[in-house]
Structures are given as C-alpha cells and as structure tokens.
Write a sequence for this structure.
C-alpha cells in the first residue's frame, strides 16, 4: 500500500494507517533530525515531535502522495525551532544520568551487550566526528549509511539532484577520513 493510500485512510479515521506511516518513516525522520542537531538523544525527541506534529497537521496535507517530503519539511521546521530555543544550551543536573557519564547523557545508556572497549571508543569517536561535519554532509551520511537509502531517494528527500548527493557523500567521506586520521596521530 502506498503512503498516499495510508494518509487517506488515516484521514478517514483508521488509526492504524498512521501507525504504519510512522513505522515506514520514523527511522528516516530520526536520521534527518540527528543530521540537523548533531545529538542523538535530542534527535530522538525531535523525531517524536515531528511525527506528532505530522499527525496533528495531517488534514493540511494537500497531496497525500507526497507525505514523505511533507513530513521531511516538518522535521526540518521542528529541528530549526529547537535550534533557535534557548533551552538547547542549558542542561540541568536532573538531566544528567545517575552515573554522571557525559557519553551516557549524549548517547543514551550503554547496550547490555558491550563491544570491547577499543571498538566502543572507535564507535564513539566516529559518531562525534560525524556530528561535527557541516550539516549538508552529515545529512547525506546519516541517510545513506543509517537509513540505507539510495542516492535517488536521498535526492528526492533533500530536494537536490542525485549527482549532488554523490558529491556530498564523497566529500563527507573524505572529510571523515581526514578528521579520523588526525585523531590517530
């Protein structure tokens, strides 16, 4: 079933239809939010806010077949709203984890099955370096590697050509290689 059909069903009152849209789009929305704000925990909150705003605004969607692009626009506005807010730079002590570990605060509690310490350090270093990339490059990396989208799908989502996606992805990889090689020295 296409997104447009699910949107029409959701508008007709079938609540399960929007649930299916959420299942289809939540990972992409999360990747976009993470790319925009550069913080995993915040991105999860913003992705949830985006999906909630989408549900509330569904009647305003002019073309149900363009649900993905419309939801992407909501995600961008949600992230921009957060970035403009003063609260983003303020962290209260109650927000910190019980251990006070800043990595746990930023990236969530450790998984129950931990990779070895070197692998975890490498993973954290990579995540931090990806989060430091300029937004356009971070965005294509997240969508390509985390969401496993194809170039043309990313192009449609971002409103650019597939060639632009290729250039950004190539440049992002080069930037990451350079940053990571500096870290190793």
């Amino acid at each position: 079933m296409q997104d447009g059909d699910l949107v029409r069903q959701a508008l007709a009152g079938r609540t399960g239809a929007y649930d299916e849209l959420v299942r289809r789009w939540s990972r992409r929305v999360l990747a976009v939010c993470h790319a925009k704000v550069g913080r995993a925990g915040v991105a999860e909150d913003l992705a949830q806010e985006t999906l909630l705003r989408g549900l509330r605004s569904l009647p305003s969607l002019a073309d149900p077949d363009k649900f993905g692009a419309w939801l992407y626009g909501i995600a961008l506005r949600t992230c921009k709203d957060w970035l403009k807010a003063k609260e983003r730079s303020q962290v209260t002590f109650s927000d910190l984890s019980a251990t006070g570990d800043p990595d746990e605060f930023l990236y969530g509690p450790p998984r129950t099955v931990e990779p070895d310490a070197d692998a975890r350090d490498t993973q954290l270093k990579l995540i931090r370096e990806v989060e430091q990339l300029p937004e356009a490059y971070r965005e294509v990396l997240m969508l390509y590697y985390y969401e496993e989208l194809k170039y043309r799908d990313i192009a449609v989502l971002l409103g650019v050509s597939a060639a632009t996606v290729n250039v950004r992805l190539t440049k992002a990889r080069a930037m990451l290689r350079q940053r990571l090689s500096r870290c190793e020295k």
Observations:
- Residues 92-99 have pLDDT under 50 and may be disordered.
- Residues 15-37 form the longest helix (23 residues).
- The chain has two domains: 3-88, 113-184.
